[in-house]
């Protein structure tokens, strides 16, 4: 029954969190092959070259994808209360906190994206970069870059997500004062973290050979 005690395995590194927004439909995943990454939910289907860690916090997701997740070559984390301690040898569990960022738990804040950010901070990331944190439907009314066959977000869902995450910048400054979170999602409706233009960020990172080498 693997229960995870937070360890700074990625101390001082850059970490990318792969969200679910439609802005990633045309994203060049090869750009993440040399990076440390945490993928939310179905990002595990990208494979370990792109998604090093998968995190999820919804029982429906676990029950639907349990068999596929067991075959994932990366590491899986959850903060689902009923799965703590974890019943599966391939799944690491950590206790859930309802809101905020925590040093001994993953704050839920109503969505997996927030839990993934908290996990990145627990792993010691110096800079956490958010990809696909659109927090809104696309102009075409789509919700995710992947086929979402479970609970597709709607405008009310995103309102709840943003309300649940509203205090995270304050928690970051208090509990992880030496660590930073940047939203690298163009036209994101999530305003609480500093934003970076995706194209300019990628160009700069490529010209400097990345920051994790």
Summarize the helices and strands and which ones pair or pack.
Elements: E1 14-18, E2 36-40, E3 53-56, H1 59-71, E4 75-78, E5 91-93, E6 96-97, E7 106-107, H2 112-122, E8 127-131, H3 155-164, H4 168-175, E9 180-183, H5 198-207
Parallel strand pairs: 1-2, 1-8, 2-3, 3-4, 4-5, 6-7, 8-9
Tell me what the structure shows.
- The protein has 213 residues and is an alpha/beta fold.
- It has one domain (14-140, 152-207).
- 24% of the residues lie in helices and 16% in strands.
- It contains five helices and nine strands.
- It is globular and about 45 Å long.
Write a concise synopsis of the structure shown.
By secondary structure, the protein is of the alpha/beta class. Helices cover 24% and strands 16% of the residues.
> What is the SS-derived class?
alpha/beta
User: What is the helix tally?
Assistant: 5
Mean pLDDT: 94
Q: Looking at the structure, what is the overall shape?
A: globular
- Widest sheet: strand ordering: 5-4-3-2-1-8-9
Residue share in helix: 10-25%
Low-confidence stretches: none
Largest sheet: 7 strands, parallel
């Amino acid at each position: 029954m693997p229960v995870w005690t937070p360890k700074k395995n990625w101390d001082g590194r850059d970490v990318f969190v792969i969200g679910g927004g439609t802005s990633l439909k045309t994203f060049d995943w090869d750009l993440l092959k040399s990076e440390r990454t945490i993928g939310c939910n179905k990002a595990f289907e990208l494979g370990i070259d792109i998604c090093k860690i998968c995190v999820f916090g919804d029982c429906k997701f676990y029950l639907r994808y349990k068999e596929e997740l067991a075959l994932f070559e990366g590491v899986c984390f959850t903060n689902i209360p009923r799965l703590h301690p974890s019943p599966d040898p391939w799944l690491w569990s950590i206790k859930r906190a309802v809101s905020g960022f925590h040093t001994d738990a993953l704050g839920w804040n109503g969505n997996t994206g927030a839990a993934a950010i908290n996990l990145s901070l627990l792993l010691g990331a110096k800079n956490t970069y958010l990809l696909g944190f659109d927090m809104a439907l696309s102009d075409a009314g789509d919700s995710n870059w992947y086929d979402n066959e479970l609970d597709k977000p709607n405008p009310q869902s995103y309102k709840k997500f943003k309300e649940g995450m509203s205090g995270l910048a304050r928690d970051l400054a208090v509990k992880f004062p030496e660590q930073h979170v940047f939203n690298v999602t163009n036209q994101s409706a999530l305003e609480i973290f500093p934003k970076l233009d995706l194209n300019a960020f990628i160009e700069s990172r490529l010209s400097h050979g990345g920051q994790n080498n």
